[in-house]
Design brief:
Length: 456
């Protein structure tokens, strides 16, 4: 793109920023965030602990910033082209030596400059308030350490190496075939096979009383080998004790030398945990050898007199993999990706629709993104989807998702790391695919639209 074109685009971008700043709605949103965010940092208490207060403020503060800035982006993006057309400003602009795609790109650039500036201001405010909260609450050393380990960090979550259930099932089916215990009818055999598969899946997640369970982790690379790692787990007792408390014993370390008859020195601890409650066990990261292998053995005491089941996804190993600051930056970049999409979407729609319709469609797409995960999860439980629900499901996959695992706020609250690869995937789908498609569609329509008829 030539220097002259860039100057034209930059001129349009500056005009767009000035136009947005003059809008009273932008000033209103700015004042709301400047007032509400500090107030939230004072009044929110969470669960009464420092970590709870930090998590609650981060959830509400970043959630409010994300919501208001996205809404503001939609309003300004929907208004800028529509108002220029309504006030006949486009007729004057397009008589200048500027092409329509340059005008479109210039307005998009202006919106993104404004969005980036506001995001930097308010994310900086939130970050400053987060750092201020510990000094205002005067926590105990124990609370401060808990906040440092579980909030002011970016911890990678690693699940254990999965058991090859399909392989175990095939071996079991071969044994049944040798013993001539397989049903002859194909339909009955299929039902029998599925029942065996379900039983094996249940066995893989359960530990009967007096028995133990081994999990293995591979590829562990903690940033600080002098620091800590954490086993995060939750189990459900089939027949809970009267006091809901379950006794267990854990051994963690590299247990491979045992196969060679060599001694090992694992981390060992006894626990008494409440049923259906999440816990974390802290242990030294030095337990992990250079090749990143780790064994975790859990023993269900026979005195519990009940089988314990570990729900899927409820057993993980966590370790510090990056800093809180870099994680916070990546979270803000995800929010910025949303704002880029909404800005280009609003501009594209306003090239051929009126302002109220653009606002409505943009709001609908935004709120669908906020709840799309819930809708998709609900549809998974609906058997024999009708044509309508089937089309709805595929449409939701095409639209952007802003909730669940796509929400940066969930990562920040739980202290989980947002990897650069995950951020890259967000930008690949949301920016490179959906935003570019919306932008190209808007430019194509805008280039062909008749702005005014020449009358003689």
């Amino acid at each position: 793109m030539g220097l002259k074109k860039m100057r034209k685009i930059w001129a349009v971008a500056k005009i767009t920023v000035a136009q947005a700043i003059r809008m009273k709605i932008a000033l209103l949103f700015f004042i709301l965030l400047v007032i509400i965010l500090p107030v939230l940092s004072f009044i929110i208490t969470g669960d009464g602990t420092l970590k709870g207060k930090l998590q609650t403020f981060t959830a509400y503060g970043m959630g409010l910033m994300n919501f208001l800035l996205c809404i503001l982006t939609i309003i300004i993006a929907s208004y800028t082209l529509s108002s220029d057309l309504k006030q006949n400003m486009l007729h004057t602009i397009l008589t200048k030596p500027i092409r329509r795609f340059e005008l479109f790109i210039g307005k998009a650039m202006g919106l993104l400059i404004l969005d980036l500036g506001l995001l930097i201001i308010f994310s900086g405010l939130i970050y400053g308030l987060i750092l201020t909260i510990p000094y205002l609450t005067k926590p105990s050393d124990e609370e401060m350490q808990a906040a440092k380990n579980e909030f002011f960090t970016a911890r990678a979550e690693i699940e254990p190496v999965p058991i090859d259930i399909e392989k175990v099932k095939n071996l079991a089916m071969e044994d049944f075939a040798k013993e001539n215990k397989l049903p002859k009818d194909p339909q009955e055999r299929f039902v029998f096979e599925q029942r065996i598969l379900a039983e094996l899946n249940a066995q893989a997640r359960s530990v009967p009383p007096g028995m133990s369970r081994l999990w293995q982790f591979e590829g562990l690379t903690p940033k600080d080998r002098e620091g800590s790692i954490y086993i995060k787990y939750k189990f459900e007792a089939v027949s809970p004790p009267a006091d809901e408390m379950v006794i267990s014993y854990w051994s963690v370390g590299d247990l491979r030398p045992l196969k060679l008859g060599l001694p090992v020195d694992p981390y060992q601890t006894g626990r008494k945990d409440k049923n259906k409650t999440s816990y974390e066990i802290e242990m030294p990261a030095s337990l992990i050898p250079v090749d990143g292998h780790l064994d975790v053995v859990f023993e269900n005491y026979v005195e519990n007199n009940t089988t314990l089941i570990f729900p899927e996804g409820e057993f993980k190993l966590l370790y510090r993999s990056d800093s809180f600051e870099f994680n916070f930056v990546r979270a803000c970049l995800i929010i910025f990706a949303r704002m880029i999409f909404l800005a280009v979407l609003g501009l594209s729609l306003s090239t051929w629709l009126s302002f109220p319709v653009v606002i409505l469609i943009s709001f609908v797409i935004f709120f669908i993104g906020v709840i799309s995960g819930f809708i998709l999860d609900s549809l998974t439980y609906v058997e024999n989807l009708t044509l309508f629900f089937g089309l709805l499901k595929y449409l939701l996959y095409l639209l952007p998702r802003f909730d669940g695992q796509h929400s940066p706020i969930e990562f920040m609250v739980s202290g989980r790391m947002i990897s650069w690869s995950f951020l890259g995937l967000i930008y690949l789908k949301l920016f490179c695919l959906q935003t570019v498609f919306a932008g190209l569609a808007g430019i194509s329509i805008f280039s062909r639209r008749e702005i005014a008829k020449i009358s003689v």
